[in-house]
Amino acid sequence: MTTHTHETAEYKQLRQTMDDIKSLKIQGATNVAIFGVEAFAKHAETVPLEDEELFSHLESLVEELSFVRVTEPALRNGLRYVMTGIRRESKEAASEIGRNYLKLIDDAKKRIFKIGAERIQDGSRVLTHCHSSISVGIFLEAAKQGKDFDVINTETRPLFQGRKTARILAEHNIRVTHVVDSAMRWAMNSFNPHMIFLGADAITVEGVALNKIGSRLCALASEEEHIPLYICTSLLKYDQATSIGRLSEIEMRSPTEIWDKDCPEGITVLNPAFETIDRRNISAYITEAGLVPPQSVHHTFRRIYGKQIQDFHQSWS
Ligand code: RUB
């Protein structure tokens, strides 16, 4: 009996992963990349197709998966990495190639946690927004090193990802103060945090970061209160398409996440998921390559990953 492309367990798992990314069961740019690349690579290895049929099937899946959440270049870079690897080697090597990308992410995370933790001292107070696994990883590393500090975090409407951050910190005995998003500037003024740590979903060629809605307000308030703001992220989130002039897209999510059943007729509810943080407001990126100023992100990305991740310029021309 012939197995069809859509019947394998790996294909079903890939579809499930896409649903979980869309619904935010898998949340945060790093996890989106990890789970997306893993499921794609396993499917690529087992799909019962060869040659042209194989590549056209995989390319269409790359297109679909890349835009399940539009503001996620770490996933797109990972899919590009796997496709390049398959073309160079064979589809039989796909899972291993996928694991190599996950290792890049994992190595980057470990380095960022250590480098970021250097910034935290006894008595430090840090403000964060939303749930960034990278920012949280830095806090946990600093706590592991025995540093005594506290964190202020926002609840992050409409889906309350900030509660996840607060829960994890509390579970690790890190003092955390939780406020509503609109109290962000009030919290800066009242508690004088020494610095702000935000994650990133995407980084553009100009060194602009894209992160959860509210991040730009946070950056503007940090300017008013003179608080340094760091973006804690792997350079794998660099959006290569921005270097040929494309704009990084901002995902619009369903209005029902904000106001569902009892929303009266005649009201337009908008739910942008992310916004840009001007590079002017970014003191530095805390990355696997160390602290990187916004204007150096593009060159640092190419220096570190240029050989491993197919250059966007090549694939585009
Ligand atoms: C999460 C968010 C996070 C970044 C970075 O948005 O904006 O700050 O994704 O996360 P969402 P990480 O909840 O819509 O996915 O540091 O884990 O990569």
Percentage of residues in helical conformation? 40-55%
Which percent band covers the strand fraction? 5-15%
CATH-defined fold name of the largest domain: Rossmann fold
Largest sheet: 7 strands, mixed
Give the CATH superfamily of the largest domain: Translation initiation factor eif-2b, domain 2
- Total strands: 10
> What order do the SSEs take from the amino end to the carboxyl end, as H and E?
HHHHHEHEHEHEEEHEEEEHH
Q: Any low-confidence stretches, pLDDT <50, length ≥5?
A: none
Please tell me how large the radius of gyration is.
20 Å
Q: Any idea what the CATH architecture of the largest domain is?
A: 3-Layer(aba) Sandwich
Bound molecules: ribulose-1,5-diphosphate
Average pLDDT reading: 95
User: What is the 3D form?
Assistant: globular
Walkthrough of the structure:
- This protein is α/β, with parallel strands linked by helices and 317 residues long.
- It has two domains: 3-109 and 307-316, Four Helix Bundle (Hemerythrin (Met), subunit A) (Up-down Bundle); 111-297, Translation initiation factor eif-2b, domain 2 (Rossmann fold), CATH 3.40.50.
- It contains eleven helices and ten strands.
- The chain has helices spanning 9-22, 29-46, 51-66, 73-88, 94-118, 133-144, 161-171, 184-191, 215-224, 297-305, 312-316; strands at residues 125-128, 150-154, 175-179, 195-198, 202-203, 209-212, 229-232, 274-277, 284-287, 290-292.
- The strands form two sheets. A seven-stranded mixed β-sheet has the order 3-2-1-4-7-9-10, sandwiched between helices. A three-stranded antiparallel β-sheet has the order 5-6-8, covered by helices on one side.
- Helix 1 (9-22) runs antiparallel to helix 2 and helix 2 runs antiparallel to helix 5.
- The mean pLDDT is 95.
- The structure holds ribulose-1,5-diphosphate.
- Ribulose-1,5-diphosphate (RUB) binds at residues 24, 27-30, 130-134, 161, 199-201, 211-212, 273.
